[in-house]
Amino acid sequence: MFKQLVISFLVLQTVSYAEWQNTISDAYNSVKKNIQPTELSVEEKKAKKFRILWEDVFEEYQEGVVLIDNSQNAPNEAWFKKDQIDYKGDIDDVINNIIKILIDDDLLAYKDELDHINDEIAELKAKRTEFFEKKIHAPMKSRLSTTQTEYEEKIKDADDKIIVLEGDISIIKTRVQQRFENNGINLSLSDINQLISRVYGNDIIQMTVIFEVLKKITNQIGMLMKESKEDLVQSKKYYGMHLISLQLVVHIQQEYINKIDNYLLHVDSIIQKTDEMIKGTSKAYEMENDESLKLGYLHNRKIQRFNRSAAQAYKKDLFNSQKKITLAQKTTIAQLKLAENTYQTVSLSGELHAMIQSSNMLFKKITEIQVPKLEPFKNEKMKLQYDEITNQLLRD
Q1: Which residues form a coiled coil (predicted)?
Q2: What is the pTM of this model?
């Protein structure tokens, strides 16, 4: 009897312990479920990202406003105190700091992503060629050597991987296309292909990204000004921030114009070297008596002339793109001059708020002006030559 009681007690204890364990486990899972963060929507992620960006950029904007105020009372030139030139350098530093914050590294990484994928595709194509060459002399059946069937499988595997990578390229290009659509600019995937093939493509995309963020910053500054009511000191500070935005746009545009000047010099050098090559090939053709060798020189000269025409077309593209940015910069500078004058003379915060609100149309206008008109490539050969010139300019 005693033995049965002990056994019953032990059984009850075991069951009670098991139930206790289950209760604790259920409670833990319930708490874990409640405290686990929910997945943010795309819009919520964007809003969170902008809040972080705003906190970082707000300090730089405030410093810029202080520098603008101080520069207004500074002499044009001075030996023993800060002059206009000194303050201009300080403001440029602030602008560069803001640009670093505004640049979307995720989007601008597209170039590195594409380069990496294209390298992988080139490597797979090289392996595919190698497998094809080895397959020709491979045995039909063998336990020691790779057979023709096995090489065919390797070739198919390489082809499948290339298809997947080309799909990844399409996804990246669609991502870039979507960013332009967010700014009211509709570009086809063909346009994106052409833009990416140009050396200035990354700069155009970067400017588009920055202007998209500046529109949000302008809205934020407008909201702050609205909240400040008729507090002229605060309103003027916020309008000073808007002034910084306009100076930032002019700065970015000038950087682009200077960069294109440099590219134009390099393309001129490519054209000059190609001209010299054509002259040398023509001279060698005239001096050669062997007809088969003369045909070789004719073939080479044809390729050289094509390369020259591609370089000339590239130069025209660069010039037209620079012309569009110069036109956009004139629009921005005109708006900046008015804003500077307004900053010095306005007396009502309501007037400042209205000026800021109208600037969002400016960002849209200059973005539309800046996107170059992209003529489609005549053929794949021309596109490949453009890619080669782009790579050469980036190396130089």
Answers
A1: 107-134
A2: 0.70
